[in-house]
């Protein structure tokens, strides 16, 4: 996980630190949170890859085309940054960043509780490893 990702998750955790709330989770999210913390540790130590792969011919075609068309890549990237409420930064935009932003936006829209758990796990991992 890159430093900007960790910083963003730390900021999210500072605003909504559900780990500090008194109610205990009884729906299995404590286990999921611990599994996420363990996964972050494995990634940080090199035991697990920092990357993931997805097979989708249409999306691959789009990303390959965007790679060759900087203006369009920036248009897609800045639209994703804007939808996520981020500062617009075209310097960091590449194919990988487009995928990362799109996955985060998809999670935020379709399953925000998992993105929240990831933020909590990242914050907890950071606290344990300060």
UniProtKB/TrEMBL annotation:
Residues 7-27 have a biased composition (Basic and acidic residues). It comes from the Archaea. InterPro entries: DUF8115. Residues 1-30 are annotated as: Disordered. This is DUF8115 domain-containing protein. Residues 2-129 form the DUF8115 domain. Keywords: Plasmid.
């Amino acid at each position: 996980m890159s430093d900007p990702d960790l910083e963003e998750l730390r900021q999210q955790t500072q605003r909504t630190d559900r780990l500090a709330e008194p109610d205990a989770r009884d729906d299995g999210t404590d286990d999921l949170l611990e599994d996420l913390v363990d996964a972050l540790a494995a990634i940080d130590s090199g035991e697990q890859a920092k990357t993931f792969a997805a097979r989708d011919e249409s999306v691959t075609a789009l990303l390959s085309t965007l790679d060759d068309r900087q203006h369009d890549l920036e248009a897609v990237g800045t639209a994703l940054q804007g939808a996520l409420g981020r500062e617009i930064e075209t310097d960091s935009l590449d194919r990988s960043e487009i995928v990362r932003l799109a996955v985060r936006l998809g999670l935020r829209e379709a399953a925000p509780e998992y993105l929240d758990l990831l933020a909590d796990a990242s914050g907890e991992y950071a606290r344990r490893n300060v």
